[in-house]
Amino acid sequence: MPQLKDAAYWRAQSTDLLVEARAFIAGAYVGASDGETFAVHSPIDGRELAQVALCRGPEVDRAVAAARGAFQGGGWAELMPRQRKAALLRWAALMRAHAEELALLETLDTGKPIGDTTAVDIPSAIYCLEWFAELVDKVAGEVPACDPQFLGTVTREPVGVVAAIVPWNYPLLMAAWKFAPALAAGNSVILKPSEKSPLSALRIAGLAREAGIPEGVFNVVPGDGETGRLLSLHPHIDCLAFTGSGAVGRQISRNAADSNLKRVWLELGGKSANIVMADCPDLRRAAQAAAAAVFSNMGQVCSAGSRLLVQRSIAEAFIAELLEAARAYLPGDPLDPASVTGSLIDDAQYQRVRHYIELGKREARLLLGGEGCAVVPGGHYLQPTIFATDASSRIAREEVFGPVLSVIEFDELDDAIALANASEYGLAAAFWSADLGAIRRASRGLRAGTVWVNCYDELLDMNFPFGGFKESGNGRDNSVHALDKYSELKSTIIRC
Ligand code: NAP
Ligand code: MG
Question: Using alpha carbons only, how large is the chain's radius of gyration in Å?
């Protein structure tokens, strides 16, 4: 009989779980050379999960040397593309075989609901790896038109050693968005997970070895911001792909400029606008999507629809639907499959969001929530919170990265587009209307890397590039375009 995977099941699994806490360098798990570690806690209840190796200069140097040696040795970059594909697919298959364990690690490490990590986070990360594995033997170069006395080719070559520095909100998925295209393109990778969520990255490193990824090709250096800083300054890293905050993205850019001008790709924050016009085809569905857009993953989503712009004539009716829809996002025990949301990542993030809520209570009108929730003692649980405000308030302008929605009313389409664009960010936007002309105007007018129409957060799959305009970053993750970040183009011109 199939086992019932209820909260008791996941709790029992979590007590038996073995946690790998060492760095992975040159094909082996190793502690820090000075034995230094840092504590990793579960935001579910605050308990310590592991003492993880704290990587500093010596470990970073070893990882870079291993990655460089692997690259120059050609045991990965010079494989036939279909051999790289086969190895990456073996790795993905091993992750699939360990998907439940990875989902549990991710839930324990981040406080996300187990329903999300089993259905979304881990399967999406595996799919990303499969997608780029499948792509690698199908890409071609170019033979441009030129003087017939010459033959010219444009080919892609791997950049070399790629460092990936990733955040805690989707630890394995954000990592896969970087390492999958980078490895597919033939690079060696050094992954620096967030100190708040290093466990899934460490676990998959051993699976890479089992899959036959050669040593030095994939390394994981857990640590804190200082570890990331050392990577950003390292003279023998060729490319650094970063997802995280704008402040750190700026520092990384400066450090890259001050060291070896390594290529820097940034996926940063957002304050995405979700615009609902009065002729929106289905107000209830739009309200449900608006709630999901900002409350899923406890609002800790870079593309969260944290600014809801509603046309004034329907605002009252729409807000009533929204308040109803928001109640579905009350947090529950992350280990209970029935929970839709869980804990924020840690106390610092909880306090930061609480601070914004207090600010909101002073500068805006609280419509829902605004308080913490007692779910599991020692965790960091917040009610879904909604404010009615105008566009100038801080909660309507700054990235909160928590379950807090600002609702702003507008009169005309052009006002909505102007409000949406009045932000330093440009990651995503959404537009709800039945008028094709208005949809076209909005999709052209919105300065954002992704525009959803009559939906939100849909098709975040591998076929569409994902990334930001303006201060939301540069370059794109996902899709064939992601290969551009991890390849150099070479023109070869042959006189015939
Ligand atoms: P963060 O503080 O910028 O950290 C991101 C990563 O950078 C972590 O691994 C962090 O390590 C590391 N780091 C910290 N200081 C560093 C330094 N001086 N040099 C190099 N690396 C350093 O961001 P976060 O709090 O983890 O994540 C939240 C932010 O990420 C939000 O702004 C969100 O919008 C953004 N985000 C963007 C996307 C996107 O695709 N655009 C996706 C997800 C999240 P430690 O954690 O160990 O300090
Ligand atoms: Mg954690």
Answer: 23
Q: How far is the CA of 50 from the centre of ligand 2 (A)?
A: 10
Residue with tokens 């650094």: 240
- For domain 7-268, say whether CATH 3.40.605.10 is its number: yes
Domain boundaries, the chain: 7-268, 273-461
Is residue 207 a contact partner of residue 230, using CB atoms and an 8 Å limit? no
Q: Tell me if 141 sits within 8 A of 486, measured CB to CB.
A: no
Ligand 1 mean position, distance from CA 267 (Å) = 9
Q: Which atom of ligand 1 is nearest to the CA of 168?
A: 26
Whether 146 is a known active-site residue: answer no
Centre a 10 Å sphere on the Cβ of residue 306 and count the other Cβ atoms it contains: 26
From residue 462, alpha-carbon distances to 131, 331, 341 in Å are 7, 29, 25
Class of domain 273-461: alpha beta
For ligand 1, atom 30: residue with the closest CA: 244
The pLDDT, as a whole number, for residue 1 is 60
Instruction: Report the atom number in ligand 1 closest to the C-alpha of 197.
Output: 46
**Contact status, residue 319 vs residue 407, Cβ threshold 8 Å:** yes
What's the confidence (pLDDT) of residue 2? Answer: 67
Are 277 and 481 in contact by the 8 Å Cβ rule? The answer is: no
74/273 Cα distance (integer angstroms): 46
Name residue 197's amino acid. S
Distances (CA, A) of 89 to 78, 128, 131, 271, 288: 18, 11, 9, 36, 37
The answer to whether 384 touches 291, Cβ cutoff 8 Å, is yes
Q: Which residues line ligand 1 (CB under 6 A)?
A: 165-169, 174, 192, 194-196, 224-225, 228-229, 232, 243-245, 248, 251-252, 267-270, 302, 399, 401, 427, 468, 473
For the question of whether the overall pTM of this predicted structure is more than 0.70, the answer is yes
pLDDT along the chain (496 residues), means of 10: 87 94 98 98 97 98 98 98 98 98 98 98 98 96 97 97 98 98 98 98 98 98 98 98 98 98 98 98 97 98 98 98 98 98 98 98 98 97 98 98 98 98 98 98 98 93 95 97 98 97
